[in-house]
Design goal:
The protein has helices spanning 3-16, 20-27, 31-44, 60-75, 82-95, 103-107, 112-121, 135-140, 143-160, 253-267, 288-296, 309-312, 314-318, 320-337, 348-359, 362-371, 398-404, 407-417, 446-449, 476-493, 578-582, and strands at 167-176, 204-212, 217-224, 242-245, 275-279, 299-303, 420-421, 424-425, 554-556, 563-565. It is 38% helix and 9% strand. A hairpin with a 4-residue loop joins strand 2 (204-212) and strand 3. A six-stranded mixed sheet has the order 4-3-2-1-5-6, with helices on both faces. The chain has a two-stranded antiparallel sheet with strand order 7-8. It has a two-stranded antiparallel ribbon with strand order 9-10. The chain is built from 21 helices and ten strands. The protein is an alpha/beta fold. The chain folds into four domains: 3-44, Arc Repressor Mutant, subunit A; 58-94 and 123-129 and 387-452, no CATH class; 143-181 and 201-371, Ribonuclease H-like superfamily/Ribonuclease H (Nucleotidyltransferase, domain 5); 494-583, Herpes Virus-1.
Length: 583
């Protein structure tokens, strides 16, 4: 029963002179308890109801503060482990001279009994296994970056008046010949349970998918780690799928251009029916030939800000997770149906076909577009809690805050409002009431004991590397800037050529080769220096014309370092001769 009821009953007994038993009966309370409270009320004019455990270390307000600290640290991606929380509780109790069990001093940790009781009292907390998130992702997913992306996206929607069936997201994922085994039934208590995989380290094949906002998907495109792609590689793949190959098996410039041609065949963009493609700004996605092809075929390209695809990309949010799960299940079934056989890269398209049928569904795709705010358009889809990890490295307000607040007031500000981000103070990140951390209520606050993590000012990079950004790359200014950047890189990589109007200087290409010659008598190694001929004696390895009779530009093979005319090398600055290719 509440203290207000007991107070009202005590006043009736004292002021109206009624008996304790009659008043207790009318209020439905124990007359002995009411008698005890009446005696206290007559003495001190106040009393406290309820059970107060004699061995409780922290007050309710202090425990609420501990709970709030755990939630805030987790939202900053610096969550506390079980041991961290016990250590924090011990430090907090010791700093405030609270009465706690002597055993805490031996280990400098709060006891496991206290921890278990604390977690029971605060049911909103639980022990979770966090998902690994890189520092780059935590830093770059911030409010200014996301707002800029949605401004660009809104501008593109207003300009093109796109319908949802013409809004596409494109991305790649990798599948390997070594699957992640599914859970199996085994004897309880067994320390080690095994499952067969094809290899210790699998071979990767890249799968590129394109999905639109109404839940449709373009047939998959495969990139195999083979120099020469053959059509039989994808004979078991999804209907309509395409493929290519290169040395690494990763998506590169030439392969992405082939995919865009494959994509155009199914999306069918026209001048009256333009298509928007949203993708990350990987170098293979935004190279000049791809941009030029898209402009010619009425495709607009919008890129995400760097390191934000884990939150903004529909495929990452709701498609690739189920796809990988179903692929691993299909690979498990393949291994069980083919005992003693090793899975090859040519078996992967068939497994991808099974996974796509059950994972790349209309519901999963549309949910991905909705939860990222891309379609339906919702620029406010992300709350301040989503941007909280970026506040750890945000330095925008540091100087202003230090000028305006002393250390005590700053501690109170952080706890009442959360860390700063994007030139604003982050609102409270929990629906629970925020405890006051001011020194007026107690000596030392929790943040004085263990402050929330805050990164020091960053040192500016000396490399001069330009940062990525969200941009509409098919717009003329962005396209021209990309072309200028590409020309600069090409010029930098282009080999220096001699002045063709003057006679060659005769610079010698000399190299010292150590030739091992074994002497049967002395069994000694003899080193001989071999000098190549002059430039004038070099010849084109394609047409065999001598260097001294030529007035053309020359290019050097990247592998064997021999020379050829630019025309013979087809003006390819990454020229590799046929001899090296055949090897």
């Amino acid at each position: 029963m509440s203290q207000e009821k007991y107070t009202e009953a005590c006043e009736i007994v004292i002021k109206q002179g009624k008996s304790v038993r009659s008043v207790a009966t009318s209020f439905g309370m124990c007359h002995v308890t009411l008698s005890r409270y009446v005696a206290k009320y007559k003495k001190d004019n106040t009393f406290k109801t309820g059970y107060a455990p004699h061995n409780k270390v922290f007050s309710s307000e202090q425990e609420l503060e501990l709970s709030q600290y755990c939630m805030t640290a987790s939202q900053l991606y610096f969550g506390l482990t079980t041991k961290d929380l016990r250590k924090l509780a011990f430090s907090y109790a010791k700093a405030n001279n609270l009465k706690y069990p002597q055993k805490w001093n031996d280990t400098e940790l709060a006891s496991l009994d206290w921890y278990k009781a604390f977690m029971k009292r605060h049911s909103t907390l639980s022990v979770r296994r966090p998902e690994a998130t890189s520092l780059a992702r935590a830093m770059n997913f911030n409010k200014p970056n996301v707002e800029k992306f949605f401004d660009k996206w809104g501008e593109l929607l207003d300009r093109l008046k796109c319908q949802p069936h013409n809004i596409y997201n494109i991305d790649e994922t990798g599948v390997t010949t070594t699957q992640k085994p599914s859970r199996v039934i085994a004897v309880k208590g067994t320390k080690q349970v095994g499952s067969i995989t094809s290899q210790e380290r699998g071979t990767l094949v890249t799968v590129c998918l394109a999905v639109n906002a109404i839940g449709n998907a373009v047939p998959a495109f495969f990139v195999f780690p083979r120099k020469n792609f053959q059509s039989h590689f994808i004979r078991d793949g999804p209907p309509g799928c395409g493929g290519s190959g290169n040395k690494s098996g990763w998506m590169q410039d030439e392969e992405f251009l082939l995919f865009m041609k494959h994509f155009t065949k199914f999306a069918k963009p026209t001048q009256e029916n333009p298509v928007v493609v949203i993708l990350d700004n990987h170098s293979s996605h935004i190279n000049v030939p791809v941009i030029q092809f898209c402009k010619e075929n009425f495709i607009s390209i919008l890129s995400f800000p760097p390191h934000t695809s884990h939150k903004l990309q529909p495929l990452d949010r709701s498609v690739f997770g189920p796809f990988k799960t179903k692929f691993n299940i299909a690979a498990d079934h393949w291994m069980k149906n083919h005992p003693g056989q090793r899975m090859t890269i040519y078996d992967l398209p068939g497994l991808v076909k099974e996974a796509i049928a059950v994972a790349v569904t209309s519901n999963n795709i549309t949910q991905g577009f909705a939860c990222t705010g891309i379609w339906p358009y919702n620029k406010d889809i992300f709350s301040d809690i989503d941007f909280a990890p970026a506040s750890v490295t945000d330095q925008a307000n540091e100087e202003v805050m230090l000028d305006q607040c002393d250390q005590q007031d700053m501690t109170e500000l952080i706890n009442n409002s959360g860390p700063s981000t994007s030139n604003q103070i982050l609102p409270q990140m929990s629906s629970q009431p925020t405890p006051s951390f001011s020194h007026h209520t107690r000596k030392i606050s929790l943040l004085d004991v263990v402050p929330l993590p805050k990164a020091p000012p960053r040192v500016k990079s000396k490399t001069g590397r330009s940062k990525g950004k969200s941009a509409i790359y098919t717009d003329t200014p962005e396209k021209k800037a990309l072309e200028a950047k590409q020309r600069k890189i090409t010029e930098k990589k282009k080999p220096k050529l001699r002045n063709l109007d003057s006679k060659p200087t005769g610079k010698k290409f000399t190299r010292k080769n150590t030739v091992r010659i074994e002497d049967n008598e002395t069994n000694k190694d003899i080193n001989e220096d071999l000098d190549d001929t002059d430039e004038d004696d070099n010849y084109c390895i394609v047409c065999f014309e001598h260097y001294k009779t030529s007035r053309e530009d020359w290019l050097q093979c990247r592998d064997c370092r021999k020379w050829a005319h630019s025309s013979c090398a087809k003006n390819d600055i990454f020229f590799v001769c046929l001899n090296c290719l055949s090897e």
